[in-house]
Structure formats: C-alpha cells, structure tokens
Amino acid sequence: MTLxxxxxxxxATTPEEMFTGQWQNRATRLDDYxxxxxxxxxxxxxxxxxxxxxxxxxxYPRDYASVRGYVxxxxxGKP
Length: 79
What we know:
Largest sheet: none
Helix content: 55-70%
Distance between the termini: 38 Å
Structural class: mainly alpha
Order of helices and strands: HHHHH
Shape: elongated
Oligomer: single chain
C-alpha cells in the first residue's frame, strides 16, 4: 500500500470511508438499465439470470456477471 492509502485508512471513522476512490460512482454500461432492474426487483423478480435475460432482449451489450454483481451489491436485502 502507498502512504496515502494508509493515511486515508487511519483517518476513516467508518468502514465505508475506507472504500472510496477512483472506481466509486464510475459510469458503466449497466447504468441505463438500472432503473429497469430496480423496478423489476420491486415487482418481485429477484432472479438475476431472469433479469439479465430481460435486459439482454433490450440489447444490453454485456454478460451476466455484471447484472449478478449489481443485484448482489445493490438489490439483495431490499424488499
């Protein structure tokens, strides 16, 4: 680790503060589909594979892994 990273970690008062940086809030190809995924999740479709198949029909250019990651990081645990 670099000295800057160590100093940032030592100043953090919560764990979330340690995980900020260049990759946070970065635009992705999934961004255009996130409102649709959120809506479908609220409607009760909680299967990442099914959600991926639905946006794939809408010409989503990426693979299943990015949808699975979004679902596991942002949607799991939400009602």
